[in-house]
Automatic annotation (TrEMBL):
It holds the Pfam family Hydrolase_like. This is HAD hydrolase-like protein. It comes from the Bacteria. InterPro entries: GNAT-like, HAD-like_sf, HAD-SF_hydro_IIA, HAD_sf. NCBIfam families: HAD-SF-IIA. Residues 284-329 form the GCN5-related N-acetyltransferase-like domain. It comes from Isoptericola chiayiensis. Signal peptide: none annotated.
Length: 336
């Protein structure tokens, strides 16, 4: 595995044919737009980059997601949306025959996806379901989790739409589907299979449906979006507009590292230089970083920005991969 970022001599929007775009933290923030997101995505489409919006949210219908994006000046069709609910239904099809009973613990999006996949949706463990499909919905309560636990304890296959422990809201981070799944796991001792990111299921479904040859994953979370890119074998762009920070990228373990880093979605419209090693320093665009005595050092000349983030990533990854125990306290908060 490479210890540095990839180089791309042309804008990413011209080098790749399909962008697998995360939603919250990338295309929008809750119900609010993210600066430069809409204009950049539209411009990338004009350069030939098709886009599928891939979300771990299993509670919403693709039509609802497409409507929200369109209202934010990102024209989107339902077919341009791939949800964890659709991935969950696809995972169920790998083991269950059409007509099998599935206890759905989740929102309307998951119910629709499971029904469209040909399964009989039930609401109680007493209906003897072959599987439990669990996804987030704000209205879920103790009764719903109890039914899931009863069914799993009786032998039903437990499939989670995703295992995100937190969910971004306008007021901060709230418990996500992973936290609710954890309650069922605590009650049953059974670990579920997961369809959402970081599993590669959604990415591969989207790529296959669109016949893409050069897909690019775009996300803000290293532990889901970019880990899923690694799992699928697709290059990933980490944008610094959401959950995972530039500092997180510098400290990322190999399985979570992005191939490209950008301050925001304008980075789709730009070439990406790769850091290069020279005289013990990793240099990128006039900025440099190195690791000395287990500590990250940054040069003190030049403007702060994404090139310094790139140089710091390369220096830290190279040192860690060579066996250095990098002192995390030496890594400052970096701004893209």
């Amino acid at each position: 595995m490479t210890a540095t970022l990839r180089a791309c001599g042309t804008p990413l929007a011209e080098a790749y044919d399909l962008a697998l775009v995360d939603l919250d933290g990338v295309a929008y923030a809750g119900h609010l737009p993210i600066e430069h997101a809409a204009a950049s995505l539209v411009a990338a489409r004009e350069r030939g980059l098709a886009q599928v919006f891939v979300t771990n949210n299993a509670s919403r219908e693709p039509e609802d997601v497409a409507g929200q994006l369109s209202e934010l000046d990102i024209p989107t069709r339902p077919d341009d949306v791939m949800t964890a609910a659709q991935a969950c239904a696809a995972l169920l099809r790998t083991r269950l025959e059409p007509g099998a009973r599935v206890l759905v613990v989740g929102g309307a999006g998951l119910v629709t996806a499971v029904r469209k996949a040909g399964f009989d949706v039930v609401r109680s463990a007493q209906d003897d379901p072959a599987a439990v499909a669990q996804g987030y919905a704000a209205e879920l309560g103790w009764h719903d989790l109890a039914e899931a636990a009863y069914a799993v304890a009786a032998g039903a296959w437990h499939v989670a739409s995703n295992r995100d422990m937190s969910l971004p809201t306008a007021r901060g981070f709230a418990p996500g589907n992973g936290a609710l799944v954890a309650a069922v796991v605590a009650a049953t001792g059974v670990e579920p299979d997961s369809a959402g990111k970081p599993a590669p299921t959604m990415y591969r479904l989207a790529v296959d449906e669109h016949g893409a040859e050069r897909p690019l994953v775009i996300g803000d979370r290293l532990d889901t979006d970019l880990a899923g890119a690694r799992s699928a074998g697709y290059p990933g762009l980490h944008v610094l507009t959401g959950v995972s920070s530039a500092r997180d990228a510098v400290l990322a373990s190999p399985g979570l590292r992005p191939d490209f880093v950008g301050a925001d979605l304008r980075s789709l419209l730009e070439p990406h230089p790769a850091p290069e090693q020279e005289d013990g320093w990793w240099r990128c665009g006039g900025r440099a970083a190195r690791v000395v005595d287990d500590r990250l050092e940054l040069d003190r000349e030049g403007p702060a920005g994404i090139d310094l983030v790139r140089a710091a990533c390369a220096a830290a990854w190279d040192a860690v991969d060579a066996g250095t125990r990098l002192d995390a306290e030496s890594v400052p908060d970096l701004q893209g």
